[in-house]
Design a protein that fits this description.
Length: 352
């Protein structure tokens, strides 16, 4: 990280976290952030659910909720970008304050509640997206919806023409009873509606499913069964956690989903269990607590074909994406892997 980025981060940490997040989006739009361009190599190039990626390090949903910074983010070193979550109608989300830094824990707690400008505004921006990037959309449901399952399909139908992938997000802890949709019967029905909508699009868009890290063994087995039966293209493991185990920061008692460093072990164990159950039949994306190339590599070795990060940028800056990709290239080379795919699941047993 360059000195200018360190100074900028220090300044952002002096203001309210949500204000700082808004300023970071404006800085991207103004061209004030690192843009190294695509980071790639013969080792880093990989394929995820049929999508060619320059590298396996992605931006997780939640950073660019309204698809406002697609072009600069596509030049920030990520192999792929996920924006949103988008709901059919705009909604303000939960009352502020709703984002908290846990500096001592290198973590954050949020209870945004799917605040976004709605699928029409987001879809219009996606229509103007850079075509040389891999961009997906996190699909959400309105809090006051009469049919939340149908909301996911509505957003996909509206935005699908402009997407490289779409993620069904039933794992946010900040919309009441949303996680109830992770149950086997409810999830199967929801995904069937989304897949039917996808199949009606002019171009096939891979559909991913994002799950919570707080599932028990039975819940993980149900997810694996649904993943195989439903025809989805990948599983993202995992979203934020409700656990507060081992936290030190003053805001540790705030309600919402915890992300960042404390999530790493929990999310990686869920990832490895899913990988063991699925046995390469459905690819996985590892998310949760990644802030170094070594941690990204650990997720891949536990069973992830690609990874995503977000909270680590609060502490490591936007340049972290390129740094992790370059470091991952070196780790693959060190261990004699010619491609990312060769390393996937190679140390899964360490997490079971």
């Amino acid at each position: 990280m360059k000195l200018t980025e360190k100074l900028a981060l220090a300044a952002l940490h002096r203001v309210d976290p949500e204000v700082a997040h808004g300023l970071s989006i404006k800085a991207l739009q103004a061209g004030l952030t690192p843009t190294p361009g695509p980071v790639t190599s013969s080792r880093l190039k990989t394929t995820l659910a049929g999508i060619a990626l320059p590298n396996p390090v992605g931006l997780a949903a939640g950073f660019d909720k309204n698809a406002e910074a697609l072009r600069p983010l596509s030049r920030a070193g990520f192999g792929f970008i996920e924006v949103g979550a988008a709901t059919p109608r705009p909604q303000p989300g939960n009352p502020k304050p709703r984002l908290f830094r846990l500096t001592e824990d290198r973590a954050a707690i949020n209870r945004f509640g799917f605040n976004n400008e709605g699928m029409e505004a987001i879809g219009a921006r996606l229509a103007q997206r850079p075509r040389d990037a891999v961009i997906g959309l996190n699909l959400g449901a309105n809090k006051d919806s009469d049919d939340r399952a149908a909301d996911f399909a509505r957003v996909l139908a509206h935005c699908g023409a402009h997407l490289d992938f779409a993620t069904v997000n039933v794992s946010s802890p900040n919309t009441e009873k949303l996680r109830d949709l992770q149950g086997k019967a409810a999830l199967s029905a929801l995904l069937a509606g989304v897949i039917d909508t996808r199949d009606d699009l002019e171009r096939r868009v891979p559909v991913f499913l994002k799950i919570a890290p707080d599932l028990d063994r039975e819940g993980i087995e149900d997810i694996a069964a649904v993943a195989l039966e439903s025809g989805i293209d990948a599983v993202i493991a995992t979203n934020t956690t409700l656990s507060r185990e081992g936290l030190k920061s003053a805001h540790k008692g705030e309600a919402g989903g915890l992300s960042g460093a404390p999530l790493f072990d929990r999310s990686t164990r869920v990832l490895a269990q899913l990988s063991d159950l699925l046995q390469d039949r459905v690819p996985l994306i590892g998310v949760g607590g990644i802030s170094t190339a070594e941690q990204a590599y650990a997720k891949i070795c536990a069973g992830a074909s690609a990874v995503q990060l977000y909270t680590a940028m609060v502490y490591g800056g936007l340049s972290l994406a390129g740094e992790i990709a370059h470091g991952l290239d070196q780790l693959l080379d060190r261990d004699g892997f010619d491609t990312v795919a060769q390393a996937v699941g190679s140390k899964r047993k360490d997490w079971l």
